[in-house]
Amino acid sequence: MTSPVLPPLRETVRAHGLQASKALGQNFLFDEQLLDRIAALPGDLDGATVFEVGPGPGGLTRALLRAGAKVIAVERDDRCLPLLGELSAAFGGRLTVIADDAMAIDADALAGGPYHIVANLPYNVGTALFTRWLEPAAWPPSWLSLTLMFQQEVAERIVAKVDTSAYGRLAVLAQWRSNARIAMKVHRSAFTPPPKVMSAIVHVTPAAQPEGVNPRILSKLTEYGFGQRRKMLRQSLKGLPGAIDALEVCGIEPTRRAETVSVAEWVALARVLSR
């Protein structure tokens, strides 16, 4: 698919007088080669639907459109809308821009079928959106893959192994019925303005869901368990009805702490509570 020739993104941003908003957690990426590498992570996007959150001036959006995708982008910063409108016109309407807060959007309904989620997530809402996408009752979900940029510390928590300092609720939710990996690390110097932290891109694909487990119960169970991670399970889980009995059924010592409980063990506990 032939892509239109566009002026460099940095020039377009300068022409529109745009600057990254600290309040919105914005940091712009201008390196087109890097953006093309990110857009390639989900695989072949020619003709595919992609949902993007917080496109800002549209750097990643350009790369997705160059890859042949139909992009639905949600942007709450009104300053970016004229620039994104020009981008939509340049690509023959393959870009649909919705001026709204991504937390208020039903991506499944907008996509109307299988789709990928690709986003340089704003740091201030990234984790909340990620956990929402991991928790639908219906599985496999409508999304085919998640390709998301986070602070590197958050990315490491998503892929962490049991009994490590990074292991916690986010790792359990990401790994119990999905495959999650760090696909790329991005140096802070790649951004304008440079953030104080390093970034990494996590790639997630759905896996088979263990039978007999209610995802809401697993979510609540890990919320209690890791909410007081320094305490023994008998203390952190005592407020959740049936949880202490479930420990006994699963043969999990109540004196253990949440970070020593494997993903499989959390799933077993949730299965008992789901009956």
Walk me through the structure:
This protein has 275 residues and is an alpha/beta fold. The protein folds into 2 domains: 9-206, Rossmann fold; 215-274, Orthogonal Bundle (Helicase, Ruva Protein, domain 3), CATH 1.10.8. 36% of the residues lie in helices and 18% in strands. It has helices at 9-15, 32-40, 59-66, 81-90, 107-111, 126-134, 152-158, 169-175, 215-227, 233-236, 243-250, 263-274; strands at residues 28-29, 49-53, 70-74, 95-98, 115-120, 143-151, 178-186, 191-192, 199-206. The strands form 2 sheets. Strands 4-3-2-5-6-9-7 form a 7-stranded mixed beta sheet, sandwiched between helices. Helix 2 (32-40) packs across helix 3 (59-66) and helix 11 (243-250) crosses helix 12 (263-274). The mean pLDDT is 94.
Question: Which helices and strands appear, and what pairs or packs with what?
Answer:
Layout: H1 9-15, E1 28-29, H2 32-40, E2 49-53, H3 59-66, E3 70-74, H4 81-90, E4 95-98, H5 107-111, E5 115-120, H6 126-134, E6 143-151, H7 152-158, H8 169-175, E7 178-186, E8 191-192, E9 199-206, H9 215-227, H10 233-236, H11 243-250, H12 263-274
Parallel strand pairs: 2-3, 2-5, 3-4, 5-6
Antiparallel strand pairs: 1-8, 6-9, 7-9
Helix pairs in contact: 2-3, 9-12, 11-12
